[in-house]
């Protein structure tokens, strides 16, 4: 048997045994075809494989792809022109941590401009799941490596998988053939610490992070609701037009600045270089977060 070198996505349907997903295979499409972009699946880690199988809304987690997902529209000839070393990668497994403070703020980080994939884009802290790790374990490690936040088990009041996102880079075929293909697992970690307590412990890695921001539900609703295309973004008078951001210099020094909320609403451009924005997958995760807040408020 070939030695496992990294955690990859494996797919199962019905009673079939899990099979390693191919790089050019649509994970979402495997379950629902090409007409729709969201479904529910069950997921679990087993023998360093991330296994996805059929689920329901009651017994599963949401899986979604962007309506413009490149893998969804990839032709046979385009797939054949992808370099063999890329085709042999399989579908990687990522984890992203939605860290919720006691006062309902969520931490987002701006990826360093020198990164090859999604530079200058706002995302939750996260990265690859390593061999032998559990999902929450991987999330806490990535949180620590990227932001310097060391959370003890006693700091965490709850954790849960919010949803899965099929992430492809570049995010559109108009910007080039796929180079990376991931399933990102969004994990909500709730802590009894306030965002100010957590902020005082931030020590971001400048090689990974160029900025940090704590967003509150009102701003998140604007970011999720506005498509951000060329028209101006209208932020209601009850919300700030700009929010405080902690900038991280290449040397790791921290400073405060303000960022227009409209920047967070930008969309991924169809051509040219990327722009500063909240990633499409992150917007999906933020929508799921808002739903949990609404459900909690109804129960309370």
Question: What does the model show?
Answer:
The structure is a single chain. By secondary structure, this protein is an alpha+beta fold. It is built from nine helices and 15 strands. It has helices at residues 27-32, 70-73, 76-80, 84-87, 135-147, 195-199, 217-225, 261-264, 280-299; strands at residues 8-11, 19-20, 38-46, 49-54, 61-65, 92-100, 106-111, 121-123, 126-128, 156-169, 180-191, 209-215, 242-248, 254-260, 277-278. A nine-stranded mixed β-sheet has the order 2-1-4-3-5-10-11-6-9, sandwiched between helices. A six-stranded mixed β-sheet has the order 14-13-12-7-8-15. Mean pLDDT is 92; it is low at 227-232.
**N-end to C-end Cα span:** 52 Å
Number of helices in the DSSP assignment:
9
Q: How many strands in all?
A: 15
N to C succession of SSEs:
EEHEEEHHHEEEEHEEHEHEEHEH
Give the rounded overall mean pLDDT: 92
Bin the helical content.
10-25%
User: Which structural class fits the helix and strand makeup?
Assistant: alpha+beta
Uncertain runs: 227-232
Strand order of the largest sheet: 2-1-4-3-5-10-11-6-9
Evaluate the radius of gyration.
19 Å
Shape: globular
Strand content of the residues, in percent? 25-35%
For the sheet with most strands, the description reads: 9 strands, mixed
Please name the defining characteristics of this protein:
single chain; 300 residues; alpha+beta; six-stranded mixed β-sheet; 9 helices; 15 strands; globular
Short description, anyone?
This protein is 23% helix and 32% strand. The protein is of the alpha+beta class. The strands form 2 sheets. A 9-stranded mixed beta sheet has the order 2-1-4-3-5-10-11-6-9, sandwiched between helices. Strands 14-13-12-7-8-15 form a 6-stranded mixed beta sheet.
């Amino acid at each position: 048997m070939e030695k496992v070198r990294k955690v990859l996505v494996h797919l199962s349907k019905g009673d079939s045994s899990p099979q390693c997903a191919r790089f050019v295979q649509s994970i979402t499409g495997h379950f629902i075809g090409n007409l729709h972009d969201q479904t529910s699946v069950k997921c679990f880690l087993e023998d360093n494989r991330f296994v996805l199988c059929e689920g329901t809304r009651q017994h599963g987690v949401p899986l979604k792809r962007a309506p413009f997902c490149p893998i969804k529209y990839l032709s046979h000839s385009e797939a054949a022109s992808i370099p063999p070393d890329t085709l042999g990668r399989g579908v990687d497994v990522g984890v992203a941590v939605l860290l919720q403070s006691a006062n309902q703020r969520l931490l987002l980080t701006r990826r360093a401009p020198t990164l090859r994939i999604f530079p200058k884009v706002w995302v939750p802290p996260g990265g690859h799941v390593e061999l032998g790790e559990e999902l929450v374990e991987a999330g806490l490690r990535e949180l620590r490596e990227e932001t310097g936040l060391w959370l003890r088990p006693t700091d965490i009041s709850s954790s849960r998988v919010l949803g899965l996102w099929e992430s492809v880079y570049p995010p559109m075929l108009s910007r080039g053939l796929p180079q990376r293909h991931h399933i990102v697992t969004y994990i909500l970690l709730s802590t009894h610490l306030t965002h100010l307590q957590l902020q005082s412990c931030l020590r971001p890695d400048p090689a990974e992070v160029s900025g940090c921001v704590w967003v509150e539900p009102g701003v998140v609703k604007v970011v999720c609701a506005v498509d951000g295309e060329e028209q101006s973004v209208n932020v209601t008078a009850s919300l700030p037009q700009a929010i405080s951001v902690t900038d991280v210099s290449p040397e790791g020094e921290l400073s405060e600045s303000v960022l227009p909320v409209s920047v967070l609403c930008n969309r991924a451009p169809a051509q040219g270089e990327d722009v500063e924005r909240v990633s499409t997958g992150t917007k999906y995760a933020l929508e799921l977060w808002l739903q949990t807040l609404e459900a909690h408020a109804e129960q309370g």
